[in-house]
Amino acid sequence: MNKAARMRKAFKDMCFSGDLVNMVVAPNALSAKIAEKTGFKAIFQAGYATSADRLAQPDRGIADFGLMSDSAREIINAVNIPVFIDADTGYGDEQNIERLVHVYENMGAAGLFIEDQTWPKRCGHMDGKTIISEEAMVSKIQAAVNARQHDDFLIMSRTDAYAVTGLQSAIDRSRHYHEAGADLVFVEAPKTKDDLQKVADSFPDVPVMANMIENGKTPLLSNEEIHEMGFTIAIHPNVLVYTTTYSTEKLLRDMVELGTTERQIDKMVTFPQFNHFIGLDDVNALEEKFATAPIEL
């Protein structure tokens, strides 16, 4: 079994195991590798973090399929744990969705979600969202399910209807998306614990995801609370972007004001530690194994 098949099967087993799948969004390959080394069993690649990391731009539909898929490929190649993908709205009609499913499946992703926002979309916790018709989204889900080549590649439906037409509409839409073939369900940005609970209770036999954004619209809960409510997946999408921004700004202010990194040096890994972490020892060993004798001139 190759890596892609192993990652798809591992992620599907996690989602249907009854245990909580705890995922963090990795903005780039380095953060993905850190997540893997610190014990995460699966990670997410998403638009907010990718837009911030690659473009220094907000999640407002600026990161297109080309940029998102390039970033996903780098992340997947950097780790040996499943990577789940934010496919936004599918970047077009059913033919575009068929193409993106093939691209992500072939590069080794474990699955993806598609949302029912209009394009250009925006982060689910931003104001001003609009949504497509339920019928149009059902067609997108059906196209994604029909396009996949392996049953272990999971399709998640995401609805942003809560902010536009209310909780019951979001639940009803998600039921219809599941009936259309979505394996997993995601209702974005409920504003209360009671509404989160209603979402979980509405899908007792379907893996459902909860999205935890610091200072977002949804109450910030612990993984234990999320699991007790009945959610199967917990996603932490922005914590690495926010932490990196905070610590980087703090360091750079010191460098400007003090002319030294001395006050921050105890918060850094060392030169040897970092080289070891990113695999310099392995690269050196490979070079030594295949090195040829120097050519005499």
Automatic annotation (TrEMBL):
E.C. numbers: 4.1.3.32
InterPro entries named among the record's database cross-references: ICL/PEPM (IPR039556), Isocitrate_lyase_ph_CS (IPR018523), Pyrv/PenolPyrv_kinase-like_dom (IPR015813), Pyrv_kinase-like_dom_sf (IPR040442)
Note the superkingdom of the native organism. Bacteria
- Gene Ontology molecular function terms on file: 2,3-dimethylmalate lyase activity
The UniProt entry, under CDD domains, shows: ICL_PEPM (cd00377)
Mark the transmembrane ranges.
none
- At the top of the EC hierarchy, this enzyme's class is lyase
**What are the UniProt keywords, alphabetically?**
Lyase
Return the Pfam families for the record.
Answer: PEP_mutase
Q: Would you tell me the protein name for this molecule?
A: 2,3-dimethylmalate lyase
Organism, by scientific name, is Secundilactobacillus silagincola
Specify the taxonomic lineage. Bacteria, Bacillati, Bacillota, Bacilli, Lactobacillales
